[in-house]
Design goal:
globular, about 70% helix, mainly alpha
């Protein structure tokens, strides 16, 4: 989880000039996949608070890189 601990929001990854476009995409995809898996687990009664808004923001950031 390269994003974990360093970035508070997907937008922070987009703003990081030290990362290349492909690195940003890879990190956002990993973050998206982690949140999607967590949502699925939460739906199966494993509990925990999940931010659907965060998942939407991650997807929006990915879309902006793919335009």
């Amino acid at each position: 989880m390269a994003y974990h601990g360093k970035y508070e929001a997907p937008e922070d990854i987009l703003k990081d000039d030290d990362l290349g476009r492909e690195d940003k995409i890879r990190m956002l995809e990993q973050w998206r996949d982690d949140k999607t898996a967590y949502l699925r687990a939460s739906g199966e009664g494993m509990g925990g608070e999940v931010s659907a808004d965060l998942l939407k923001r991650i997807k929006k950031a990915l879309a902006s890189l793919r335009e």
